[in-house]
Amino acid sequence: MSPDDSPASGGDDAAVVDRAASVADSDVSEWLSLEPDEEVVWVGEPTTMRLVGTVVTGIVLIPVLIGILVLLFAPLSYLGIKHTDYVVTTRSLYVKRGILSTNIESVDLDRIQNTEFTQSFWGTQLGFGTIDISTAGSSGADISFDDVEDAREVREEISRVQREFGGGGRGARDGTGGGDSPARTRQAAGADQLDELVAELRATREALERVEARLAEGADTAVEPADDADTAVGSQSRGDGPLTDETDRQGSDRADEN
Predict the structure, then answer these.
(1) How many domains does the chain have?
(2) Distances, alpha carbon 247 to alpha carbons 142, 244, 258, in Å
(3) For 127-150, what is the mean pLDDT?
(4) Does the model's pTM come out above 0.70?
């Protein structure tokens, strides 16, 4: 048996075929406009199994009449499920919601900071969960894939596509040879700006040091003449100057005359 005929290889091929079939059968092309180098990787919607919790809750609460209202809203919840689409492409994540109107949200792969996987009680029992996607600087989830089947695998698929996007996978697909992603380009630009700022601060500090040195030299030059004047005055007060010597000679001459 060749490696290509191994069970593992067959399972991977089947998964790829199923995913390609689901993408081909989806109607996302009606509302999704892709870039020339953008490809759809995964398409999904909330699972109808999440209605199980709504129905069970409604049945339990029928004796208090609230359950009847809960059951009446079940068809509306079903319509909400059928009018919600989740899409993962090679560049972005998309969420489309709306029954009477359409609301489309998107997040680029290079902006994704974190993905979180959560499961409710019914999600744990029935195998579905929610994926919350947040970007850098946000206080919470920017978009979320609510109540999708095999949520763990979907989260891993998002991480895989994100790694390929950041590692130059897009360049390999469009023939540009990879290259830096927008996130890496922004990081490099930020590093260059930081280096320029450090260089400017260093030059400013050196200029201030030179000014300080010149001021110190000027202060020393002004102090030296003042010291000479003080020395001269001190000599005269002690009787060491020429005036004192002349006075002494005149006193000696008068003494001789007498």
Answers:
(1) 2
(2) 102, 5, 17
(3) 87
(4) no
